[in-house]
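Example 9 (inverse folding). The structure is encoded as follows.
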């Protein structure tokens, strides 16, 4: 058997119940009939296993024990063992300074009081430069003065790793004015209660054209929160080469999504490294990044989302990248009611790996483009609800590509795998790679056409016959030995 292109409808909750029963009666029905049913349902073992365990709980001890056994084995059939974890990469924040902008005036600060004063008195062209050291943040830092297109206000450390902001406040930098830029900062949430460390950056209202480049942000629920205020939205922003991660499971019922965007349009999210966003509280569902709330023309390109790097094997659902997220309450929609959650947004050249649920999820996302992404060790790609329409091309998917609840999928030359293969412990797409190094075992599978657009995830040009997925070779994404300490573990 070889990987193949496939899409199909994914049924609703009633089929989950039937599938739980099917797991018992498959031997009686015969292997061929059972696998055909699994293929039609298009539910991954990693999704079915936890469901079986939940359905068995609360019954007599024998049923509970059987449910746990079945659940564990279903997940084990599907999940990869990422021995050694994620290698050190040149994606995300790096030990070299970001390419900053020229400053009209350098304002040096050495403590939090001076930082607050510099923010309050900032003028276009200022470079507010934090001297090396630790800064304890116990209340939000407000950025309310506008910069200009030709003279943004910059907040920076001269060298990455030289400044550590320790935040014990719900929000850190609260930006409500345009043309601000944040570079080379290390921000760590240190709250005793995870619900008290919500955002390192809250970008809202009139804060258009805000950029955050080469920052390391650790231990927050939504490291970057971007949303409107009084129907004004912070459009045209940039998040580039940031490392966003958590060192522990987030014990909170609040949303857990390192990049959480509601209503904003025309943002670019590029070369960010996002990992370990595990939520144990509330609905237990977390996303690596989503844009929703009626925004348009947002772009995710050349990002790496590694759902479970160090925080592995926990209950709950981790979803990689999403256009539409879990949906938006009507009062928060850019267009009242959210006719669609997203429109004309793009996912390209991203690597999404090691997720307990789907790697890419489109929820009421119209006119979407999903191009040359690698989706490895996840439950595949879901395109859901009638508002969703998506063009998928050149993707490499370790699992199925599904239309669900009326979503429209237009496929062109993708490499994916039938869902029932996973129930056999067979993963033909994953087998193309050595995991976690993600080097091809042999010559990569190549498309007949589709080259010329570039660069790929690792910065390499695409040949005329490009490889399926996010990269030609993964080696150029690996950090040089001198920079290996700047990984997602930092």
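The amino acid assigned to each position is listed next.
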């Amino acid at each position: 058997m070889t990987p193949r292109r496939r899409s199909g409808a994914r049924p609703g909750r009633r089929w989950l119940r039937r599938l739980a029963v099917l797991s018992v009666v498959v031997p009686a029905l015969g292997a061929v009939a059972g696998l055909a049913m699994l293929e039609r349902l298009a539910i991954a073992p990693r999704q079915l296993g936890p469901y079986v365990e939940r359905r068995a709980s609360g019954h007599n001890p024998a049923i509970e024990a059987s449910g746990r056994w079945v659940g564990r084995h279903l997940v084990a059939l599907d999940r990869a063992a990422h021995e050694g974890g994620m290698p050190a990469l040149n994606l995300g924040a790096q030990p070299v300074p970001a390419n900053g902008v020229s400053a009209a005036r350098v304002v040096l600060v050495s403590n939090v009081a001076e930082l607050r004063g510099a923010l309050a008195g900032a003028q276009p062209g200022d470079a507010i430069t934090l001297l090396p050291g630790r800064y304890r943040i116990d209340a939000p830092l407000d950025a309310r003065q506008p910069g200009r297109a030709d003279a943004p206000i910059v907040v920076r450390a001269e060298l990455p790793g030289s400044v550590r902001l320790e935040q014990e406040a719900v929000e850190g930098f609260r930006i409500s004015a345009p043309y601000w830029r944040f570079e080379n900062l290390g921000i760590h949430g240190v709250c005793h209660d995870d619900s008290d460390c919500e955002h390192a950056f809250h970008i809202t209202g009139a804060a258009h054209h805000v950029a955050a480049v080469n920052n390391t942000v650790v231990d927050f629920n939504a490291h970057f929160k971007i949303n409107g205020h009084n129907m004004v939205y912070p459009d045209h922003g940039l998040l580039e080469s940031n490392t966003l991660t958590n060192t522990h499971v987030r014990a909170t019922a609040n949303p857990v999504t390192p990049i959480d965007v509601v209503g904003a349009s025309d943002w670019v999210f590029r070369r960010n490294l996002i990992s370990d966003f595990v939520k144990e509280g509330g609905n237990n569902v977390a996303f690596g990044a989503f844009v929703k709330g009626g925004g348009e023309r947002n772009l995710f390109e050349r990002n790496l989302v590694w759902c479970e790097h160090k925080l592995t094997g926990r209950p709950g659902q981790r979803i990689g990248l999403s256009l539409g997220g879990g949906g938006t309450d009507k009062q928060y929609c850019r267009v009242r009611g959210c006719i669609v959650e997203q429109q004309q947004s793009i996912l390209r050249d991203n690597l999404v790996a090691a997720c307990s649920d789907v790697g890419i999820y489109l929820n009421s996302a119209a006119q979407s483009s999903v191009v040359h992404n690698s989706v490895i060790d996840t439950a595949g790609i879901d395109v859901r609800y009638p508002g969703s329409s998506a063009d998928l091309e050149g993707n490499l998917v370790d699992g199925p590509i599904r239309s669900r609840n009326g979503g429209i999928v237009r496929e062109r030359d993708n490499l994916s795998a039938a869902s029932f293969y996973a129930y056999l412990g067979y993963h033909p797409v994953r087998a193309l790679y050595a995991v976690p190094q993600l080097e091809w075992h042999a010559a990569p599978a190549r498309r007949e056409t589709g080259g010329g657009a570039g660069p790929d995830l690792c910065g390499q040009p695409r040949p005329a016959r490009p490889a399926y997925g996010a990269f030609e070779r993964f080696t150029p994404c690996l950090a040089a030995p001198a920079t290996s300490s700047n990984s997602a573990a930092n």
